[in-house]
Design brief:
Elements: H1 2-15, H2 21-29, E1 33-34, E2 50-51, E3 57-63, E4 79-87, E5 90-97, E6 104-111, E7 117-127, E8 130-135, E9 141-145, E10 152-155, E11 164-165, E12 174-180, E13 185-190, E14 197-204, E15 207-219, E16 222-227, E17 251-257, E18 260-265, E19 270-275, E20 280-286, E21 297-302, E22 308-312, E23 318-322, E24 327-334, E25 342-347, E26 353-358, E27 370-375
Parallel strand pairs: 1-24
Antiparallel strand pairs: 2-24, 3-27, 4-5, 5-6, 6-7, 8-9, 9-10, 10-11, 12-13, 13-14, 14-15, 15-16, 17-18, 18-19, 19-20, 21-22, 22-23, 23-24, 25-26, 26-27
Helix pairs in contact: 1-2
């Protein structure tokens, strides 16, 4: 409780001058506190072992090492970060493969307007530990390698254009990416206990072949962005190249929405909000509160209404919702899979279907991954 009090004081003290209106009200309320879910309590586990609120149902979309139903495509091992892309009246869900030894990559499943699976295919292969990533406004998927000199690969969700390595975005232990179309930058997280928070500024927006990699600095409580001299991370790792670069304990998921980049840090179980328009930083959620339901924070996404959905790496295998009025509560729980983690939460374009994976499923092995869809009355207004 002491840390929570300190966090609230720090957010109010440091951010008061910068926040106004609804952002100021949110800043005062941070961090989010446990409370009732807007969807009500979880019900008994369904046939897939998933506990959901009343009115919601689940189905299995794909299983690692098995053919996706109705296709000849074998679903990849260890499904991780994911996103959805509009495809005419249907959509595509892409998913990374967090597998090493050049066996990583990404795959995709196509759905028609009735949510029926119409195809599946590979969009990236031969890479290492593709953990999370992010979608771009020009409909590509950035697949990020979680190794010390990892690359970002720009891929085509339709599998038509060849995947392209993007070294200008830096070589480090990449985790996730989030595009900010207002400032025309891509935010990047780093999965290290002394990781950093970056942004890539393309020379030309929409073309990631060249640009400037920057890292967030904090000096005397003031935030600024500094250029990383050697984005290739050699001989000095990118996180050590700029004095005063702010340290984040195990960067994980990253999602941009309405001038805010939300990202998670697993080392201290926090969800952060970088308010880009004001260049301020706040802690949205910290697990050091009585009854905190969310631990092992990992991938994050958001519904159009503003709710954040944060997946757990371990914990009790929940996806928790954080509402705009700063209440955190379980949205779903996967039972019988305690040796796994939840990955890749993403909504279809209509916002009424949520996709995600259990990376190692019931077996606890990368070959046991399961990708799910949850359908139900997701709220469209507050």
């Amino acid at each position: 409780m002491e840390r929570r009090t300190v966090l609230r004081a720090a957010v109010i003290g440091a951010g008061a001058a910068a926040f106004s209106g609804s952002l100021w009200r949110q800043a005062v309320a941070y961090p989010a506190l446990p409370g009732p879910s807007p969807y009500g309590p979880l019900q008994a586990a369904d046939a897939n072992g998933i506990m959901l609120p009343s009115g919601f149902t689940s189905r299995v979309i794909a299983r690692s090492t098995q053919k996706v139903a109705g296709t000849n495509h074998t679903w990849h091992k260890a499904p991780d970060g994911g996103a959805c892309f509009a495809d005419g009246s249907g959509w595509i869900y892409v998913s990374n493969a967090e597998v090493g030894s050049n066996a990583g990559g990404a795959g995709a499943v196509k759905f028609n307007s009735s949510a029926q699976i119409t195809g599946a295919h590979t969009i990236l292969s031969g890479t290492n530990r593709n953990c999370a990533g992010g979608a771009t406004p020009w409909n590509t998927w950035l697949s990020c390698e979680e190794v010390d000199t990892g690359f970002v690969y720009e891929t085509d969700p339709w599998g038509v254009a060849a995947a392209v390595q993007r070294p200008a975005m830096g070589r480090f232990n990449h985790e996730a990416a989030a595009a900010d179309p207002v400032r025309k930058v891509i935010y990047l997280t780093e999965d290290k206990s002394d990781g950093r928070f970056y942004r890539f500024v393309p020379t030309t927006w929409g073309n990631l072949s060249s640009g400037t990699l920057q890292v967030l600095k904090e000096v005397g409580g003031a935030l600024s962005w500094a250029t990383v001299p050697d984005p290739d991370g050699s001989p000095t790792a990118t996180r050590y190249q700029v004095s005063g670069a702010k340290v984040f304990n195990g960067g994980e998921g990253c999602h941009y929405r309405a001038d805010v980049c939300y990202f998670t840090t697993k080392g201290d179980n926090r969800v952060w909000a970088y308010h880009a328009a004001n260049n301020t930083l706040a802690v949205v959620y910290d697990d050091n509160v009585s009854g905190a339901p969310l631990t092992g924070v990992d991938n994050v996404t958001a519904a159009t209404v503003g709710d954040l959905y944060v997946a757990e790496d371990g914990g009790n295998m929940e996806i928790c919702v954080i509402t705009p009025d700063d209440v955190v509560a379980p949205f779903l729980r996967i039972t019988g899979q305690s040796s796994s983690e939840i990955t890749g939460p993403a909504f279809n374009p209509a916002g009424n279907r949520l996709y995600f994976s259990s990376q190692r499923g019931t077996s606890g092995s990368s070959s046991g991954g399961i990708t799910y869809e949850v359908t139900g009355p997701f709220r469209s207004s507050l």
